[in-house]
């Protein structure tokens, strides 16, 4: 419980109606959780304006209401706090409610189109391997020290985020690592959070259904770096032209990493294999269990951030070789018949290109690449033909299939993808709507030495169709098919 007057010190109300010397039992933004003594923050969301639920919350016994528009009828048993922006108010109230947890952690945020999950997760693993308690917030999973917590969003809402950070502090964590999505920046979900550092991985086309233009997408990412405090570090990929944009107005200390030019953290791929890479980091060679240039960038950013956090450079190099790939990120599975299946989350054109180029670099002309991919429904339609084209250009065979159709007709999505196929690729392309059958067909086509890439869903263990999530795991499907080959 906290006194309302204490909570109000964290925001700048336009108007307060009622008694501020009352005890608040809980802070909520979901009217369904209303109970006696709560403070309810009414937010004007994209789909729902929760101001409409204020009467229900008052009837349930709420003690305080934070809102942008005061109700016409006010209860004398409730304190009403009018604010200019309820979302920003919620962010600061959540920070206050949970005793400013981010200030007690060295919190590093990772943003960019690709590589966020891998980079954040590997930093968490690095801290743990070095003997430090740490927390993780990612698309795949949230972890409080070593206890897994279900992840529902790339970047959680204000209350969930601060609750997780608070739990990390209570568990004795010194460090925390989190993905910072462009949506979270625009929606002020990281407002009020104190970061010790930020990493920018790269930027390519994604989320155009939300941001509409690439410039808006860049601006969303830049908001994160612009808000960093002095004394924090800003580490960016110097090989991505947007990296310098991220640094333009930040107050943080600026650092860069690169595989091409001499920067603060310089990397080089010495040798690449399907089961690992020999990597050079600032002149030191290390064997890692990762493949591909995109993973070299991820590891280089992990190396740089680890040193910026003050970890011992030699210990960091030793632990780099112990880091393991994230589930569903270039996850390799060996068939009894001698071909390799790779499951990867690549769901953007650039990510798909990176993975396919990596596979081709290793396989060369000694094997065929068979790619299974689709595109999600209710998302950026513009990338659908691009995904199909990139898959066709970089693969020997392609199987287009359903991803998460959500509320769209999967066959309609596939027809849009098909428009991107070059004419010479059509004879070697199959369209199989059923994802399970598509994966099985690709495996049946494979010969010893070939690689089957199943792209788009990675770690996901479901397929979303008409608002219902049905259990479906690409890795399970492949393993099941492999069992029939023995």
Task: Write up this protein.
This protein is of the alpha/beta class. 33% of the residues lie in helices and 23% in strands. It is built from 16 helices and 26 strands. Strands 11-10-9-12-8-13-14-15-16-17-18 form an 11-stranded mixed beta sheet, with helices on both faces. A 6-stranded mixed beta sheet has the order 19-20-24-21-22-23, sandwiched between helices. The radius of gyration is 24 Å and the shape is globular. The termini are far apart. The model has no long low-confidence stretch (mean pLDDT 94).
Secondary structure blueprint with pairings:
Layout: E1 2-3, H1 4-8, E2 15-17, E3 23-24, E4 26-28, E5 38-41, H2 54-59, E6 64-67, E7 79-82, H3 86-97, E8 106-111, H4 116-129, E9 134-137, E10 142-144, E11 147-149, H5 158-170, E12 175-179, H6 182-186, E13 197-200, H7 208-211, H8 214-226, E14 233-237, H9 242-247, E15 253-258, E16 265-273, E17 276-281, E18 284-288, H10 293-308, H11 313-320, E19 331-334, E20 340-344, H12 349-363, E21 369-373, H13 383-394, E22 397-400, H14 410-418, E23 429-431, H15 435-445, E24 451-455, E25 462-465, E26 468-471, H16 474-485
Parallel strand pairs: 4-5, 5-6, 6-7, 8-12, 8-13, 9-12, 13-14, 14-15, 15-16, 20-24, 21-22, 21-24, 22-23
Antiparallel strand pairs: 1-3, 2-7, 9-10, 10-11, 16-17, 17-18, 19-20, 25-26
Helix pairs in contact: 3-5, 4-10, 10-11, 12-13, 13-14, 15-16
